[in-house]
Specification:
109 residues, 4 helices, 0% strand
Amino acid sequence: MRRFLLLPRKFAAVWLAMALLAAAAVVLAAPPAAHQPTHATLRAHLQDVDADIVAARAHNTALQAQVAQLEKRNAAQQQQLRQRDAEIAALQQKLRAAGVPAPALSAGG
């Protein structure tokens, strides 16, 4: 140890730099504790994900109810259109029976 003290100052600076580099290498080699998730952090994240899934399922159920309602409305409108078409066909048949010429019965005429 006493011999180290007798070395010129430039060697002491080199030894100090090497010691600091070694310490920095040890610090950098170990994973930082702040970046590793804890059990509580993971559990909280899992609860957040579970809550998101529950909300998405509720939204999906609401959308499915809307789709069912729209399909029911669409079916009712199609039934109304079929009834209207049947009424138009019946009126056209009455007009033909009454002697109205066919060109007068067309939609564009």
